[in-house]
Amino acid sequence: MYTVVLALHSTIRWIVLVAALCATATAFGGWLGRLSLARPLGVSGAVLVAAADLQVLLGLALYFFLSPFSRAALSHPGAAMAEPGLRYWFLEHPLPALAAVALAHVGRVLSRRAPDDATRMRRAALAYGAALLLFAAAVPWPPLPFGRPLWPF
Predict the structure, then answer these.
(1) What is the pLDDT of residues 42-64, one digit of tens each?
(2) Nearest to 138 by CA among 68, 91, 84
(3) Which residue has the higher pLDDT, 153 or 126?
């Protein structure tokens, strides 16, 4: 079960990153180009939030139930903080990812409640752009000490 959920989590990260990139590009295009892209922004924001929610659900299942790294870290948090590998999976990976999901949600809500298109695009561009950076920072890229392969298959 662990390997299946981990493979799904590793694959869906690409959907999240592409969705965040598309939502950010749409928002910046509307903001800087002064275009009314409300419908494409709504769709790209909805896809981003849905993909991020699925990703965080899989991540939480790994974190609390399936991962041997998290199980070891949660049973001895003090020791986990001293061990770089456990600390990465205990805090350094999930915290930026959760912050990015929160930013995506906040950006979607704030852009939908904006009084006009310019404000809608600006709010979405800033929130989705920050979420994209945090999502990218949370990915365990292969060259990093605790990196994972780009594709789990």
Answers:
(1) 999 999 999 999 999 999 999 99
(2) 91
(3) 126
Q: Residue 12: how many CB atoms within 10 A of its CB?
A: 18
Q: Which two tokens stand for residue 55?
A: 């990703």
Helices 117-138, 38-61: axis angle to 10 degrees equals 30
What's the sign of the alpha-carbon dihedral 17, 19, 22, 23?
A: negative
The letter for the amino acid at 46 is A
Give the Cα separation of 5 and 95 in Å (integer): 19
Start-end of H helices in the chain: 2-32, 38-61, 68-75, 77-82, 84-87, 94-112, 117-138
Q: Could you tell me which of 99, 144, 123, 143 has the C-alpha nearest to residue 26?
A: 123
Q: Are 146 and 140 in contact (CB under 8 A)?
A: yes
Contact 114, 126 (CB under 8 A): no
Q: Give the Cα separation of 105 and 69 in Å (integer).
A: 28
Orientation of helix 94-112 relative to helix 2-32, angle to 10°: 40
Residue 63 CA, chain-centre distance (Å), reads: 15
pLDDT tens, residue by residue, 116-139:
999 999 999 999 999 999 999 999
